[in-house]
Amino acid sequence: MSHPAIVKDNVAVITGGASGIGLAAAAAYARAGMKVCIADVDRERLADAATKLSSVTSATNVMTFAVDVSSAESVRELEHAVAAQFGGTDLLMNNAGIQPGSTLFGEPDNWQRVIAVNMWGIINGSRIFAPSMIARGKTGLIINTGSKQGITTPPGDPAYNVSKAGVKAITEALQHELRNTRDCRVTAHLLIPGFVFTGLTAKGRTEKPAGAWTPEQTVDFMLARLEVGDFYILCPDNDVPRALDEKRMQWAAGDIVENRPPLSR
Ligand code: NAI
């Protein structure tokens, strides 16, 4: 783990941090000596997650916060609470996400929920945390969790696809604005996981399907590729049918696509 933001006593905030990829990331940051705030809408999961983290770090290095990322007010409270308890944020992982399913002709409720959580969550996190992270003057890192579905837009579940295509667009806007901010040492990465066995994808299964990754594998893959600069981290395909690969973006080359070259600064 070589990224200068991931060092002892720095502070990481992880939304959707009470389970799955977010919790695995929180555990990894805590193992590196960071103070971690896991922020999640699910209070029960938060309590369980804090117990799990107590096996990797001391209780004083862990903070939990009940947040609804779709609400700017709630995210603002989170930012203030982290500043009050830990002094500020060095790493923000905008990771909370839902996938209740949708069709274009179906009820609009899921559309609104998915866009509110998956897209507005990233907008709120970026807008509210970035200014204070920049003001710290330290190396800072924002990681947004996207999805291959935001790039390949397969048929089925269009609301999720749109929300994750939005995550990519918002991350690019964030990278652009950070690069154009004077004395800014904060950069942004887009994490694009493969098929990861979590509550989001379990759909009643208790056993990890062959080919799926664990959240820990995904986080290890990401950590090994974090560098200073603006990057996409695209995890290897494991479940995406070959035909969809043909729709890859031009920056995705080969079977395993790693960091996009740094954008010129
Ligand atoms: P998960 O369901 O284990 O974790 C998501 C967490 O987000 C949950 O703890 C949930 O309570 C929380 N959350 C939901 N709505 C929230 C809200 N309004 N405010 C705050 N927290 C909220 O799922 P997983 O798989 O760990 O998902 C993490 C991210 O990874 C999501 O953005 C998901 O879309 C993305 N992803 C997951 C993939 C997979 O195969 N599992 C593949 C590609 C992307």
UniProtKB/TrEMBL annotation:
GO molecular function: oxidoreductase activity, acting on NAD(P)H, oxygen as acceptor
Coiled coil ranges: none
One Pfam family linked to the record: adh_short
PROSITE patterns: ADH_SHORT (PS00061)
Cited InterPro entries: NAD(P)-bd_dom_sf (IPR036291), Sc_DH/Rdtase_CS (IPR020904), SDR_fam (IPR002347)
Record keywords, A-Z: Oxidoreductase
Family affiliation: Belongs to the short-chain dehydrogenases/reductases (SDR) family.
Protein name (record): Short-chain dehydrogenase
